[in-house]
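FAQ

Q: What does a record look like?
A: Structure on top, sequence underneath. For example:
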């Protein structure tokens, strides 16, 4: 939009130079064009994630990585159009009902007056609306842990509960550890992402992920995996323990498959970026 108005302003200068109107008319034309551009570009961006232009109006562009697997990368265009401006990589796996959010430059916390930029949950909703995906159908939200405080809290939890570094952490609302993990910003963000369901289980999985930045090296990342259930589910209904355990294992198998698909797609796309000599965001990949 800004480019359009700048172009319009430049056209006014071109007409002034070639048509040579009187100085009074030229001044009036330039003043009118400048005022129109200023008034238009200072309009506040929409605060409604259901708006088709929500992401673009906040300075973001969406790049489809793999339409078949549901991988999307969101780039901020407010600081340029280079690949290095990536702020969020999210994979929407509709088949397995799993959303995976990789390392992000966005803070998983509530917006405030001093920081009105959209947060991961708002961007997630906007992306789902844009792609006609019902985010309330998701059963899992998986997030990379990006900050040292959360990594340290996980490390202390493992130490205090005699859990090895490679072992999976599993907590439910009945566990003492629930009060620790439910206070994390990641939990609060995940809860907002699927508002019609509630988190009933948290898994902490230490993942060894191949990195595309260096050859034959793996990156160790702690991931938080939030399981959701509908609050309307009747907990009083008797469920055979064996069947319940089998269903839980099947759900976690689906989760594991979805995370692996997302990670492999991310690595493959990262390699493509490094092989791209232009290192820029092609116009053709931007989703309208």
């Amino acid at each position: 939009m800004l480019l359009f108005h700048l172009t319009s302003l430049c056209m006014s200068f071109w007409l002034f130079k070639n048509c040579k109107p009187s100085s009074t008319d030229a001044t009036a034309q330039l003043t009118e064009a400048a005022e129109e551009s200023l008034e238009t570009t200072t309009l506040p961006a929409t605060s409604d994630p259901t708006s088709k232009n929500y992401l673009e109006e906040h300075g973001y562009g969406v790049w489809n990585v793999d339409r078949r697997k549901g991988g999307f990368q969101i780039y901020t265009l407010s600081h340029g159009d280079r690949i290095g401006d990536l702020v969020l990589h999210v994979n929407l796996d509709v088949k397995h009902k799993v959303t995976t959010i990789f390392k992000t430059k966005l803070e998983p916390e509530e917006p405030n007056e001093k920081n009105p930029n959209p947060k991961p949950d708002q961007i997630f909703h906007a992306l789902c609306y844009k792609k006609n995906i019902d985010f309330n159908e998701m059963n899992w939200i998986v997030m990379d842990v990006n900050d040292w405080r959360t990594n340290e809290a996980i490390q202390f939890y493992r130490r205090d509960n005699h859990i090895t570094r490679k072992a999976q952490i599993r907590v439910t609302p009945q566990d003492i550890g629930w009060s620790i993990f439910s206070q994390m910003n990641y939990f609060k963000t995940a809860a907002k992402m699927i508002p019609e369901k509630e988190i009933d289980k948290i898994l902490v999985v230490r993942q060894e992920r191949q990195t595309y930045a260096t050859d034959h090296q793996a990156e160790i990342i702690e991931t938080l995996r939030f399981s959701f259930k509908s609050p309307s589910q009747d907990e009083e209904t008797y469920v055979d323990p064996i069947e319940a355990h089998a269903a839980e294992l099947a759900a976690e198998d689906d989760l594991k498959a979805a995370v692996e698909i997302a990670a492999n797609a991310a690595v493959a796309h990262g390699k493509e970026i490094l092989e791209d000599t232009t290192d820029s965001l092609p116009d053709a990949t931007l989703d309208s």
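Q: Is there anything notable about this one?
A: The chain has a mean pLDDT of 74.
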